[in-house]
Amino acid sequence: MNQQFEQELMGSWQERQEYAEMMQPLLGKLYRDKAVEVSIFGRPMLGANIVDIIKAHRTVRLHTGEKLRLRESWPILEALSKLTLAPAHIDLGKLAYAYHHDQQNQGLDIDQYLAKELAGIVGEVDTHPVQDVVLYGFGRIGRLLARLLIERQGKNNKLRLRAIVVRGGKDGDLEKRASLLRRDSVHGPFNGSITVDHERNALKANGSYIQVIYADSPDSVDYTQYGIKDAIVVDNTGMWRDRDGLGMHLKAKGTKKAILTAPGKGDVKNIVFGVNHQDILPEDTILSAASCTTNAITPVLKVLDEKFGIENGHVETVHSFTNDQNLIDNFHKADRRGRSASLNMVITETGAAQAVSKAYPKLHGKLTGNAIRVPTPNVSLAILNLNLAKSTSRDEINDFLRNQSLFSKLQHQIDFTSSKEIVSTDLVGTRSASVVDSQATIVADKRATLYVWYDNEFGYSCQVMRVVQAMAGLTYPTIPA
Fold first, then answer.
1. Which of 135, 215, 265, 469 would you label with 255, given CA atoms 20 to 30 Å apart?
2. Which pLDDT score is estimated for 1?
3. At 475, phi and psi to the nearest 5?
4. What is the pTM of this model?
5. Has 462 been annotated as catalytic?
6. By the 8 A CB rule, do 98 and 444 touch?
């Protein structure tokens, strides 16, 4: 390798690094000040570091066959940062690629191009009122929801985490709650600062003031004494799953709606955002965000059914162990779950396959399901064994699902990977509901087997947040559509 080549290689890297360093603060400012979430061909840039931004640009070539250079997307981002914009999801990569490669955009300067593409949000000011949010319970999902709510801190943030409700209140409780939010063995450290306010029994995190309330029953809390009104309560305890139980939240002073982070029972609507979120009505006061597995498989099953038709099938989930299991052998009311979660693969039941039909009724009675709990702390895998209505091929299914992950209305739910080396830990922190592993796809005539990864904690929490936004009336467009 000659010296000139090495210098060119280093110069190219330094150029990309410098552009990424300029991009990083604008990405954060767009989010905090304008509630604009930026992605690059589906890869979220929220909280992205310098290398993340560079790597996201490199992946564009995998989808288009053409490079997208940072110096090509930088002027688009810079122009975006200067505009008055209503909240939206904006794919910078797609905008920049279309500007440089689509013939119909030739002759337009950047301002003209953005005026055309962003016609629905340019010059618009978001006047939606701020929505108070309360987390009832502070376990794995509760703490991740707290992280997601806190990262939205900014002058245009419309969802404000106002309180956390937990049982207990023993000495040292606040410090332990703060420590669990600050450090996570799976998801890493909290991105920011957390302090404990003993005098007011509260936590302060990145400018958020979060009241900690101790209560044994949902209907015993008076939120109004803390200045909280018309709150959406996110129940992540799983203790109450029907309308009567969840209705106790609405008996508390200062609440308006309640959402459950588990499958709802009875007539409670189970919402998988992206599939049936249009069923959320303004008058709905109690909803369920279904389960992590239902959120992972339903979007993929929906698009496959619409394209190829699903006659029937079986869903097997290889699921990370949960707090419901025992670390070592001990009594458990459920079969097998009493055996050590850290040492065994444990066959158990799952209602996810049947629950799919609550969000997508066309598959009612067509799916069976089972689960194997395995000794990993997070990220699970759903294996979809499907009998289709028509013959297809591995390439056709993979190409279809890749397209769905990039350009469909389910692009925030379905992700796609072509990696031959990907394993479960690589998917920790994934914001989509599922990731299709294209290298594992098997197709024979009308039979197809697909492998779908999902972060059963963080990816699911992102889906819950989307339902919370919809309940609050916060629906944002995705651009390009």
1. 265
2. 57
3. -115, 120
4. 0.94
5. no
6. no
Number of domains in the chain: 3
Supply the range of the domain harboring residue 112: 3-117
Neighbours of 355 (CB within 10 A): 24
Within this chain, do residues 84 and 185 fall inside the same structural domain, yes or no?
no
Residue 360 sits in the same domain as residue 435: yes
**Per residue in 389-431, pLDDT tens?**
999 999 999 999 999 999 999 999 999 999 999 999 999 999 9
Same domain, 112 and 138: no
| 297, 427: one domain | yes
DSSP 17: H
Q: In terms of domains, do 332 and 441 share one? A: yes
pLDDT at 168: 79
State how far the Cα of 434 lies from the Cα of 382, in Å rounded to an integer.
Answer: 9
Asked if residue 395 belongs to a domain, the reply is: yes
Kindly state the DSSP code that residue 368 receives in the 8-state scheme.
E
Spatial CB neighbours of 170, under 8 Å, sequence gap ≥ 6: none
Amino acid (one-letter) located at 273: F
What is the average per-residue pLDDT within 371-376? 97
Q: Is there a domain that residue 275 lies in? A: no
CA 251 to chain centre: 30
Whether the per-residue pLDDT at 96 is higher than 70: the answer is yes
- Of 92, 133, 159, the closest CA to residue 234 belongs to 133
Task: State which of 83, 117, 151 marks the end of a domain.
Answer: 117
Together in a domain, 148 and 241: yes
Per-residue pLDDT reduced to its tens digit, 156-181: 789 999 999 999 778 889 999 999 99
Of 292, 381, 397, 471, the active-site residue reads 292
Check whether 87 has a pLDDT greater than 80: yes
465 in a structural domain = no
DSSP per residue over 437-475, as a string? EGGG-EEETTEEEEEEEE-TTHHHHHHHHHHHHHHTT--
CATH number of the domain at 188, please.
3.40.50.720
pLDDT computed for residue 464 by the predictor: 98
Q: Are strands 231-235 and 208-214 parallel, antiparallel or unpaired?
A: unpaired
Same domain, yes or no: 11 and 156? no
How many other C-beta atoms can be found within 10 angstroms of the C-beta atom of residue 423? 10
Could you count the other beta carbons within 10 Å of the beta carbon of residue 159?
Answer: 19
User: Does a structural domain hold residue 424?
Assistant: yes
Strands in 43-44's sheet, in edge-to-edge order, are 43-44, 36-40, 88-91, 478-479
Separation in Å, CA 134 to CA 139, 179, 193, 216: 14, 19, 20, 15
Distances (CA, A) of 343 to 255, 338, 374, 376: 43, 12, 8, 10
What distance in Å separates the CA atoms of residue 456 and residue 262, rounded to the nearest whole number? 12
